[in-house]
Write a structure and sequence with these properties.
18 helices
C-alpha cells in the first residue's frame, strides 16, 4: 500500500478510536436523570460525576503531552481505549456513588490519552497545507460519538437497562483498542526517527518555553472561550435542561444532540479551510464564535420558559460551532511551536476548554440546588435560567485572554519580521486591489 493510501487508513483508525472515546465521554450525558435515580444523586452530586471526569482530563493534558513527545501516539491511544473500557465496565456494574465516580475517573484518564495523540499523527502523516482541515475533520467527525450516545446507547439504556447499555459501550472500546494495535502507526515509513527522549530538565524547559510562547496562550484562551458551552450542554446538562427546563420529550432532546453533531461536522471543514487560507485572521473567527454563542444564550434566557422550539434549535446550531472553533486553538499550538514541543503545547491548549467546562458543570449543579427547591425538584425551569448565567464569566475571561495574547503574539511576529496589519487596513487594501483589477480589465487597447 502506498503512503498516500496508507495515511488515510491510519487516520481513519485514529478517528475511529477518538469517536469511540467521545462516545465514552458523553455517555453520561444521556444517562444523567437515570443516574440521579440509580444513585440517589442531587444536582451537585450529579455534576460531580462529570466534573471529576473533566478535572482528571484537564489535569492530565500537559503530562500526556510530555508522554506523547516521549513514547509516541500508538501506545497512548491503545492505553486510552483500554482504560475507558475498564471505566465503562465498572460503571455498568456500580450500584453505589463512589464506584460510579471511580468509573468516570477512569473514563477521564483514557479520554485524556486519546485526542492529542491522534492529532499528532495527523501532523506526522499529512502535508502541512492539509493539517488545519484534517484537524477540523478529526475533531468534528469524532463528535459523531455523541450520536452513538444519544441514539443507540440511549435506546439500550431505556430498553434493556443500565448494565447492558454500558457493557455494550465497553465492548466497542475493546474493539477500538484492537484495531489501533493492528493498524495505527506514529509516522510514515521512512520518516525521520523522533529525537531521543528528553531528560527531566528538558521536559521542564519545554513546558516553560511552550507556556511563555504567546501563541500557545492564544490557543488556550481560544479553546476555553469556544468549547465549554457546547461541551457542558452535551456532556451533562443539555438533556436535563431541554427536558426539565424546557418541557421537551427525551426523544426530542436526543434528536437535538444529534443535530449538534451534524452541524459541527458541516462547520468543521469550513472553519478548517478558513484557517488554512487566512492564518493571520483566525482570531476574528474565534471572537465571532464566542460573541454569537453568548448572544444566542442571552436570547434564550431572557424568554420565560418554555422558549420557542425554533429558538432552541438555533441555540443548538450555534453551540455546534464551538467545537470547530476550539480546533483553531490547536492550530495556534502547531504554528507557534517547534515540532519537538507540539505535544506539550497542544496539551496546554487543551487544558483551557476542559477546565472551563468542569468549572461551569460544577457551578450549574450548585446553582440548581440553590436556585430551586431541594432534591429532584431542583431541576426547574427557573433554576436552569439562573444556573446557565454562570457562562458569562468564562466568556469575559476568554475574550480578554484572546485579545491580550493576540496582541503579544503579533508583537513577537513583528519583531521576527512578520507584520499583521489591522483588519480594517487589510480589508481596505483588498478593496483597492479589487478596484484596480477591475479597472485594468476594463481598459481596451487603442
Amino acid at each position: 500500500m502506498d503512503v498516500q493510501r496508507r495515511r488515510w487508513v491510519v487516520w481513519s483508525v485514529g478517528l475511529f478510536a477518538y469517536l469511540i472515546g467521545v462516545m465514552h465521554r458523553t455517555s453520561f450525558g444521556v444517562a444523567g436523570l437515570d443516574a440521579a435515580d440509580r444513585f440517589g444523586a442531587a444536582p451537585a452530586a450529579l455534576s460531580g460525576f462529570v466534573v471529576l471526569q473533566l478535572l482528571v482530563y484537564a489535569s492530565l493534558q500537559v503530562p500526556v503531552g510530555v508522554l506523547l513527545d516521549r513514547y509516541g501516539a500508538r501506545r497512548l491511544v491503545i492505553a486510552g481505549a483500554l482504560t475507558m473500557t475498564a471505566g465503562q465496565v465498572l460503571l455498568a456494574l456500580a450500584t453505589s456513588l463512589p464506584l460510579a465516580i471511580a468509573a468516570r475517573v477512569l473514563v477521564g484518564v483514557g479520554d485524556a490519552l486519546t485526542f492529542i495523540s491522534v492529532l499528532s499523527v495527523v501532523t506526522a502523516w499529512f502535508p502541512t497545507r492539509q493539517v488545519p482541515l484534517m484537524t477540523q475533520l478529526t475533531g468534528l467527525l469524532g463528535q459523531l460519538g455523541q450520536v452513538l450516545s444519544a441514539v443507540p446507547l440511549a435506546a439500550l439504556l431505556h430498553g434493556p437497562g443500565w448494565t447492558p447499555a454500558f457493557l455494550s459501550a465497553a465492548g466497542i472500546g475493546i474493539f477500538a483498542a484492537a484495531t489501533v494495535a493492528a493498524v495505527f502507526r506514529n509516522r510514515p515509513p521512512g520518516a525521520p526517527a523522533p529525537p531521543p527522549a528528553p531528560s527531566p530538565r528538558e521536559i521542564i524547559d519545554g513546558l516553560r518555553l511552550s507556556w511563555f510562547e504567546p501563541g500557545t496562550r492564544l490557543g488556550l484562551f481560544t479553546h476555553m472561550g469556544t468549547q465549554f458551552s457546547g461541551m457542558v450542554f452535551a456532556l451533562l446538562w443539555g438533556v436535563p435542561y431541554l427536558v426539565a427546563g424546557q418541557g421537551m420529550s427525551s426523544g426530542a432532546a436526543s434528536a437535538l444532540l444529534t443535530l449538534f453533531v451534524a452541524v459541527g461536522v458541516i462547520a468543521g471543514p469550513l472553519f478548517g479551510e478558513f484557517t488554512a487560507r487566512h492564518p493571520m485572521r483566525r482570531s476574528w473567527l474565534v471572537i465571532a464564535v464566542i460573541a454569537v454563542t453568548a448572544a444566542c444564550w442571552t436570547s434564550v434566557l431572557l424568554i420565560p420558559p418554555p422558549a420557542p422550539r425554533w429558538l432552541l434549535v438555533v441555540l443548538v446550531v450555534v453551540l455546534a460551532l464551538g467545537p470547530p472553533g476550539s480546533m483553531i486553538g490547536f492550530d495556534y499550538a502547531r504554528t507557534f511551536n517547534p515540532g519537538h514541543r507540539q505535544g506539550t503545547a497542544v496539551g496546554i491548549v487543551n487544558v483551557g476548554g476542559f477546565t472551563a467546562s468542569l468549572l461551569v458543570t460544577l457551578a450549574i449543579g450548585v446553582l440548581l440546588g440553590v436556585a430551586g427547591p431541594g432534591g429532584a425538584g431542583s431541576y426547574t425551569p427557573e433554576a436552569f435560567r439562573v444556573a446557565w448565567t454562570i457562562q458569562y464569566v468564562v466568556w469575559a475571561i476568554a475574550l480578554v485572554g484572546v485579545v491580550v495574547a493576540r496582541r503579544r503574539a503579533r508583537r513577537k511576529m513583528a519583531e521576527e519580521g512578520t507584520v499583521v496589519p489591522p483588519l480594517r487596513e487589510a480589508l481596505a487594501a483588498r478593496r483597492r486591489a479589487r478596484r484596480d483589477r477591475a479597472g485594468t480589465g476594463s481598459r481596451r487597447p487603442g
